[in-house]
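> @MW can you paste both from yesterday?
MW: sure, first one:
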Amino acid sequence: MFNKFKKTFTVGLALAIATAISFTACKKSDDAPTTNTDTGEIKYGALMMVGAWPNTTYYIAGLSSLKEGTIDLKGKGVNMSAIAQDQGFIQRNGYYYYYNGDNGRLGRYHIANDLLVTDREVPFTQMSGFSSHIWADDNTLVVFGTNTDQTKIRYAIINATTLASTGGEINTTAPTDAAYTRIGVGFAEYRSGKIFIGYGYLHANWPTPSYPKVLVAAVNYPSMTVSTLLEDSKSRWPGGPTRYNPYSFVDENGDLYFATVPEGGWDYDGASLIYRIKSGTEVLDNTYNFDYSAKAGGNTVQAMWYIGNGQAIVRGRIPADRSNADFYYNWDSNFALINVQTGAVVKKFDLPTDKGQIYVQAVIVEDGKAYLLVNGANSNGAIWEYDPATDKLTKGATFGAGYDILLRLDKWK
């Protein structure tokens, strides 16, 4: 994803990795927003940003419930700015993984007793920064990025406990038009011994839109050899990077779905399409045609979470006013329910407009229900429970004052 972020976020190329200050275990500083009604076993984490770019601080508050209570930073919250200055963590089983491009170190961290604990940090030289990732198993993290001059996709296979890694390049075919000089990584999805990686090429002259094709590499794991290169000209720029939020999934049938995000490749007029790669195949299903933007009033996909039974939740960008020269900073969004098997937008959720931020890990699926993190445009944010069995939407835990934007909701246990 190469894109312009909202002014509260890093402005620049999508594969640029935000700088970090230092890697230490630390508690929230005394001058941070200052008690939390959440006193049960901590099972979740909510990442909140305080301030505006470049004067931002990132705090994680632990939650015991998504359904009730008030979450704030009064006497609580762990300052994550000690290790990172954006929300692009990779999280699994309560552990956070983050690569600091400034000092070239990869770290694994967790929160305990309202402290940021550094489990391990190691030098990391496999690539200049992470874009997307998959988990091959509970202890094997595979990450994707580019080389320094952004001409090749690189990968690293990482032991999630020791952080030891091996790496190399993914062999792709360059576009015939030499004006598309740089490569960017989109989604990554693992299925039955294959990793599917979306990617695109950027034109040398910004903001000329990216190479006008959807490109996907099917890669054998663990050899990391390319078995098939796929392409399609109906859209461009497979969504990513996935260290912020997901753009793809595999359903109960083994079918893989992914969405395109054309503005990620500087095409601010293009539509988001959802593609399918059927179980047991390595081809884009040419019988499947789901133009999400056409069915959602021009919205484009900003993230997509599978909730089961063919249904997924899409966080869609509301079309911005193109007469405003600053339109590409406007990332106001809403949430919609889609059925990928039928190619239908089932409904738009009756929720407040989600105020402007491009990357928000906003959905947890648990016990057959989905929990949506919503930044209210004119009110404090909240977590909403959606029960697909009853089609009921219920307001759950809310957020108090003291933050500027909600960025992540993660399940730790």
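MW: second:
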Amino acid sequence: MSSRNKRRNRDREQEEVQVRKHIVLPDVEVKKVVEPRPVCSICGEPIEAIIEAITESDGSYSHFDCVINKLKEKYNVKEPDKVSYIGHGSFAVFTMDEEGKYVIREKIAYESNENYASMLKYVEDNRE
């Protein structure tokens, strides 16, 4: 880089610093999120991180891992089969095919869009 370009860059940087010094931003009050601590409807223990909870059909909440274990038991899932979350409130039972790849054996719609929306509202309502 030539000395001329270096001077231009330095001058531009100094101008930007001067502009930033004169900008005054108003104070913004940021609401604090108070993490709700509902009790897991499966194990009875508090849910420490609501973001990791799953909404049950009755509107209660459960630990993600408790739901996985519940589904493993309900669908009689044994190794090498697996239960996994596949998004949008749904889980699936995966089984290994002849080539050693996991394929979906069964999809399980678990958390409805309405229940998920109510959980988001619950969290939003707990802001201070």
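> thanks! Strands lie at 53-55, 61-63, 82-87, 90-96, 102-109.
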